[in-house]
Design goal:
5-stranded antiparallel β-sheet, about 35% helix, about 400 residues, 15 helices, alpha+beta
Length: about 400
């Protein structure tokens, strides 16, 4: 990879690193140059079970790593749904259903090996360093996490591992409205409960999931819960909070097969949404807001979506204030695409208005560059541009992504 980068730098050839291709904001689209397919670099290099860390190459996916860890009592919990490559997850600062308890990639990446645009190889926390914390030098690791291939090519990642919980319990609960479901989520988090997962599916998402994943859930806004550790005490408190907000009795999934069916349905929600309109393509957007504003933002979004001519579904990792909207559209009908863009921009601006962000986990790519000018002031964008210029002076690394052209 270093030799390829050096050659491309010498000849001013743009480079776009590519993993499993599960990104959602056009982060690996190209106009000229080369794509570097890193999926064949798929070795798990160093496991230090006693230190709870592992080092992997960019082609290793999260499912393969967890299969490898199966007999160690450890796992890597960051789960964006797709079986994404771990270095790609680092490049996009991925998160997912477990982030409310275990954090995002930003909290779980300890060190990165990165090939810069000119072929130089750096180690963001120092070569071979795996300490749980450090106050030495600039935090280059977090600079590259979420950089979407615009600053360098990630060729190794040292990741933080976690103990597999000794007890796991899942549950679902229906609510009379999206607002009452989200209010329950907010109260669960504010109560200090170490919930592992708490996911929202609106009524349209339940209709889609029932049909696609062969469930028989009541059609209503629904929360999916997962408790780790002291599951009985957590479930009792969550059930009480749900009841206070008009929620139904919990339906528990205690056996592994039952839990897998439930969470597989949640992860397949995107495909279920597309099945509502056969032949459509999915237009997705995500935002993240402070949890105290989540209920209002989702309720206002739901109200706007119900007035749109498009089918729209809301799902969310609501435990950390992050939610998604899926819009099945016909890409050949310009009015539908324009309406999807209008809704996505309105959702983003609604999040920005309450101190949130235009993207909680999908990234910027080409789809949300215009919104960065509203999320950051000109001085901050200028500083980002200067970082880009320092590390990639010829603008060869995934050009045209993330930063607006004029800052």
């Amino acid at each position: 990879v270093s030799q390829v980068a050096s050659c491309c730098y010498h000849h001013s050839i743009p480079m776009v690193p590519v993993g499993t291709g599960t990104g959602l904001e056009g982060g690996v689209t190209t106009k000229g140059g080369i794509q570097l397919d890193l999926t064949k670099m798929d070795e798990i290099l160093d496991l230090h079970a006693e230190d709870f860390d592992v080092t992997v190459q960019p082609g290793v996916t999260r499912k393969r790593l967890n299969d490898y860890l199966h007999d160690t009592g450890l796992w890597f919990p960051v789960d964006p749904g797709a079986d994404a490559s771990l270095c790609g997850m680092a490049a996009t600062s991925a998160s997912g259903t477990n982030a409310v308890r275990y954090g995002t990639m930003r909290e779980n990446v300890m060190n990165l090996e990165v090939v810069l645009a000119d072929g130089r190889i750096i180690h963001t926390a120092g070569s071979g360093r795996r300490s749980r914390k450090s106050a030495a030098g600039y935090n280059l690791t977090n600079l590259f996490v979420g950089s979407e291939g615009t600053l360098g090519i990630i060729t190794k990642a040292t990741l933080r591992l976690h103990a597999i919980p000794d007890a796991v319990l899942s549950a679902v609960c229906q609510f009379p409205s999206v607002r009452s479901a989200v209010d329950t989520c907010t109260q669960v988090i504010q109560a200090g409960m170490p919930i592992a997962r708490i996911e929202l599916l609106d009524d349209r998402s339940i209709i889609a999931s029932n049909a696609y994943s062969h469930l028989d859930l009541a059609v209503a806004p629904t929360l999916f819960f997962e408790f780790h550790g002291a599951v009985d005490e957590q479930a009792e408190l969550a059930a009480q909070l749900a009841a206070d907000n008009g929620g139904t009795d919990f339906q528990f999934a205690k056996e592994l097969s039952e839990r897998n069916k439930l969470w597989t349905a949640r992860h397949n929600a995107y495909y279920a949404h597309l099945a509502l309109r056969p032949g459509s393509k999915g237009f997705l957007t995500d935002v993240c807001v402070p949890i105290s504003h989540l209920s209002d933002v989702i309720a206002d979004t739901k109200e706007e979506l119900e007035k749109s001519p498009l089918i729209a579904c809301i799902i969310g990792h609501v435990g950390d204030g992050n939610f998604h909207v899926v819009l099945p559209v016909n890409p050949r009908v310009s009015s539908e695409v324009d309406e999807a863009h209008r809704l996505a921009d309105n959702i983003a601006r609604r999040a920005l208005a309450v101190g949130g962000t235009c993207t909680g986990e999908h990234g910027v790519g080409i789809g949300k560059k215009h919104l960065l000018k509203e999320e950051f002031d000109s001085a901050t964008l200028s500083a980002m541009s200067q970082v880009k210029q320092a590390l990639d002076p010829l603008n060869l690394m995934n050009p045209g992504k993330v930063l607006p052209e004029v800052v």
